[in-house]
Amino acid sequence: MSEEKYLTALKEGIINLDFDGVAKAAKEAMESGIDPNAAINNGMFPGMAIVGDKFEKGEYFLSELVVAAEVMREGVKVVTPFIKGESASKLGKVVIVTVEGDHHDLGKNIVTSLLRVQGFEVIDLGVDVATDKIISAIKEHQPSIVGMSALLTLTMPKMGEVIEALKANSMREKVKVILGGTSITEEFAASIGADHKAVNALEGVKKCVEWVSSQERRN
Ligand code: B12
Predict the structure, then answer these.
(1) Which residue in 71, 150, 191, 211 has the fewest CB atoms around it within 10 Å?
(2) How far apart are CA 107 and CA 180, in angstroms?
(3) Which of 97, 151, 186, 208, when mutated, tests ligand 1's pocket best, judged by the most ligand atoms within 8 Å of its CB?
(4) Is 36 in the pocket of ligand 1 (CB under 6 A)?
């Protein structure tokens, strides 16, 4: 099968909520040497976007959204061990979280896996985490990067709340703040004073590597 066919099988498997189909396509794609990042970004991810559109149009209900998320989780689990890191060394700490009120974690989990593969130590605080808990974790772990995810328009302001709390605790200069999630725009990120809005997981991880590399060059 060509790469295109595997990517289509992954995409359609997500749309059709086909657990076995996605697991099989993911396994076969990896055995055929398809890039695992392509399998996630160009196969499963576009499928998930279509599931979102169907939900918006009322063609899919919440239950289907939940199943699609589980199917994608399964697919990501199959391909993650095939992602190769560029560095075996420890690149530093990242605290990552989905902000309060938000339970979406597929994107955050992909970013977490990719960061770990790259050599970062990642402290994943989970989903629906209140600002004060995030601040306590940052105080405890002293990361160089804080990654926040939010997919709901309603929960996006929580990201600004965290940045304000970092400032209030004199911690803003000590960390880089990167945001992710479909609804986040560059304008929004700039308006709350974040350092970067990731285009996708891969680009976000590249930005994190860039930050720590330039930090190392300065030291
Ligand atoms: C799957 C899904 C769910 C699942 C989530 C399961 C899970 N464990 O994550 C479930 C069913 C639980 C769910 C629930 C809800 N959902 Co929902 N959901 C989706 C859906 C279809 C896909 C999201 C997804 O996982 N995409 C795949 C991942 C890989 O993509 P991603 O999250 O964007 O992440 C990528 C990048 O953004 C980036 N990234 C993400 N985070 C981060 C963080 C960092 C640091 C970095 C660097 C990068 C990064 O990397 C990822 C890979 O490139 C979207 C539609 C869509 N098109 O996005 C709706 C969507 C987000 N949901 C929506 C809604 C309304 C809800 C509910 C309110 C529905 C309801 N009526 O109850 C609830 C809210 C629950 C809550 N409190 O959070 C709306 C949000 C509208 C809005 N703008 O506010 C959307 C857009 C659907 C729609 N079109 O209406 N949902």
Answers:
(1) 191
(2) 8
(3) 151
(4) no
Domain ranges of the chain: 3-82, 92-218
Residue of 145, 182, 196 to test ligand 1 pocket, by largest number of atoms within 8 Å of CB: 182
Helix, strand, coil content of the chain in percent (nearest 5)? 60, 10, 30
Q: Which CATH class is domain 3-82?
A: mainly alpha
Residue whose CA lies nearest to ligand 1 atom number 61: 151
State whether the beta carbon of 183 lies less than 6 angstroms from ligand 1: yes
CATH of domain 92-218: 3.40.50.280
Task: Check pLDDT > 80 for residue 89.
Answer: no
| Whole-Å CA distances, 213 to 36, 80, 120 | 24, 24, 12
